[in-house]
Write a structure and sequence with these properties.
This protein is of the alpha+beta class. The chain has 3 domains: about 230 residues, no CATH class; about 140 residues, Glutaredoxin (3-Layer(aba) Sandwich), CATH 3.40.30; about 130 residues, Jelly Rolls, CATH 2.60.120. It is about 45% helix and about 20% strand. The chain has 18 helices and 17 strands. Strands 7, 8, 9, 10, 11, 12, 13, 14, 15, 16 and 17 form an 11-stranded antiparallel β-sheet that branches. The chain has a 6-stranded mixed β-sheet with strand order 1-4-3-2-5-6, covered by helices on one side. Helix 15 links the parallel strand 2 and strand 3. Helix 2 crosses helix 10, helix 2 runs antiparallel to helix 12 and helix 4 packs across helix 8. It starts with a helix and ends with a strand.
Length: about 550
Amino acid sequence: MIVLLLFAMLAGLVTVLSPCILPVLPILLSAGVAEGKLRPLGIIIGLILSFTFFTLTLTAIVHATGISPDILRYISIFIIGFFGATMLFPAFGNKFAQLTSGIAALGNTVQEKSNFAGNGFTSGLILGVALGLIWTPCAGPILATITTIVATHSINLDILFITLAYSLGAAIPMLCITYGGSKIINSTQSISGYTETIRKIFGVLMILGALAIAFHFDVILQQITLKYFPVINVESNETLKKELDKLRSNVNPNLASNTEPNSKAPEFTGITEWLNSPALTIDSLKGKVFLVDFWTYSCINCVRTLPYIKDWYNKYKDYGFTIIGVHTPEFEFEKNKDNIKNAIKRFEINYPVAVDSNYQTWLAYNNRYWPAHYLFDKNGIKQYVHFGEGEYLKTENAIRNLLDLPPLQENLPSKTFRPITPETYLGYARANSYNVLLEKDIAKIYDYKTTLGNNQVGLKGSWLIKPEYIESQDNNAILELDFIASKVYLVMESKTSQNINVLLDDKPYGQIPVNEARMYNIIDLKENYGRYKLTLQFPKDVLAYVFTFGG
């Protein structure tokens, strides 16, 4: 536990060096030059308490009350903007002091009301609470683990202390920033005479910061910064991973890690539906060799493994072997059971498929990849693990070994390695290939002018950019992509059947009819591998998620 607390605090400390601090940085600097010696301390205490509280309870609050988290967010933004206005117009500040005098009176048992209010602690505390609600630090394994555990309603004191440690770590450099701004202004003689003017300038910066967060310009700022400054990561550590695994196990036994060799198969947990089979348990599989395959139907890497997996099932099912495909979604639309059933039919999958839309079995296996293959012997003991594509012969021979069959000999022609364009996400949550700045959750007309670089994406026409996808807003929406490959796939959907025009190197290539949410084959050049320019002309209301490629 001590190791986790130290890593959590360290991870919080380095957030000040990440782009995620930028949206609140002008607000912290502005708060530091406002009146009140205890104001910075109030801000940081409010931020620690608020960030910890809302991280652990916001999901439960939204479910219990039906209040949209956006409402709380905009209230916080209004509070920040109001404090900026108090720095510009002292009359607002005097009015605020009158309104909060009752809160300050609670401090009478500790110190005199005049000292408490006059030192700005109360106003700083309220501002810190607002900051804690809107600040979204860059999430690493620690915050990701906390978020996952909170989603399973398994909060305990360990989770509370780790979240507090992270908040405290982030707060220490923030406190230095707020106090530093105040010290520089008040101790430098050449600028001390302009304190009031500087305070008003920072008031403007605070208002601008609030507006930037309200209209998502903070995302654009982070995108620009990420191109020029590396993100410091202190969480890629095997010791930390082991401690996080222990934490999951202690918080909820169903989330226990099972990465050690020769470990017992975790139970299928939280499965909402079984397809191609009645409900299965690990005990019901006793006496069989079985492979657990984590997949999702729009993942090109998963789709490429399916022919091999289906072949293994058909070849060895009569020898006491079976496969359980655990469908865990990568995108929200992949939780739709009709889409999953259509995919199973389209890919001609006959083995059992468990629908794991709540990630419970994913967590029980401590899985982190699509696809992932876990092979178990007849006693349910894990014997082999493989992540991603490839090593098909090695995996098949591991199956044959557990079935007491002789190994197959490798007799495959060698292939020359050819680079292909990497998987390219289009939603802003994971986008990193655009040659234009994206505006988050806002419809905007794009019209890039520069030449596309290798593997870059350009937009023209009206587009709405969401976390997981982009959506065409008119019938003249164009997406262009520079790629190197012989095959191009794109995950798309449309409420009605519509055609997308495809051009290759500015020459007509064909049309793609789009309707259901799935992966579509856009380009197939057979053996004509090379670098090309792809142009897609979209009608209105088509959603595009992710490009994948084949060599």
